[in-house]
Amino acid sequence: MNEAEENVDEPKIVDSLGAVAKHFGVRRDTVRNNWRATGMPGEQGNYNLAAIAAWRGRLRRTELDTSELDEIEGGPTAKQVEDAKARRVVADAERARADADLRKLELRIQRENLIPLELVENFLAGLFTDMRRQACRIGLEMKDGYPVELQERIKADCDARIKVALAEVEQAAADLADVVEAR
Predict the structure, then answer these.
(1) What is the pLDDT of residues 121-146, one digit of tens each?
(2) Are the CB atoms for 57 and 92 separated by under 8 Å?
(3) Nearest to 152 by CA among 139, 165, 161
(4) Phi, psi (rounded to 5 degrees) for 14
(5) In the beta sheet, which residues pair with residue 14?
(6) φ, ψ at 111 (rounded to 5°)
(7) Partner residues linked to 13 by β-bridges
(8) Of 4, 49, 138, 182, which sees the most CB atoms within 10 A?
(9) How many angstroms separate the CA atoms of 55 and 81, rounded?
């Protein structure tokens, strides 16, 4: 068994209610005001998505098994009980499918050695800052060793070419950011 397969059972931990909300496709306010108030597992900075999914599944099963049937005056009929059981089976199957999808995604992330977007953005921002600083020094360094009457022309020419090149890099970075946001 390779390392990626060994780590499949490791829980996916996120550090914010916003990340929990994004994962489950709900608003952050829903997680903060409703889910936390009704016993969602986890604590600030440490939210286990699998535990939250299991908690939500238990909560839904409990609601199906009790509240829906308890509200029926005179008690539920056999058909109503069977219908509730069928809905529970469907809900369990959907949860199992969602859990399997989550494990597949986690395994894919591990196998493909994907890097979190924030780390890539920070690395590129630092790289581009260093690149700009170094490129802007080229004109100053190029003029040395040439006759005084040519030095300013050489510096201006280098600066103009570097400005064009940096603008192209900035445009490419902006285009890349647009692609990332579209995902």
Answers:
(1) 788 888 888 887 887 777 777 767 77
(2) yes
(3) 139
(4) -120, 160
(5) 47
(6) -65, -40
(7) 48
(8) 49
(9) 23
At 2-26, the pLDDT tens digits run 444 444 455 689 989 999 989 888 8
Strand partners, 118: none
pLDDT band of 162, cuts 50, 70, 90:
confident
Compute the C-alpha angle 157/163/165, nearest 5°. Answer: 105
Phi-psi group of 166: left, alpha or beta (phi > 0 → left; psi -120 to 50 → alpha; rest → beta): alpha
User: Token pair of 97, please?
Assistant: 């499918």
The DSSP string of the chain is: --HHHHGGGSPPEESSHHHHHHHHTS-HHIIIIIIGGGT---BTTBEEHHHHHHHHHHHHHHIIIIIHHHTSTT---HHHHHHHHHHHHHHHHHHHHHHHHHHHHHHHHHHTT---HHHHHHHHHHHHHHHHHHHHHHHHHHHTTS-HHHHHHHHHHHHHHHHHHHHHHHHHHHHHHHHHHH-
pLDDT at residue 97 above 60?
Answer: yes
CB 81 within 8 Å of CB 69: yes
CA distance 84 to 89: 9
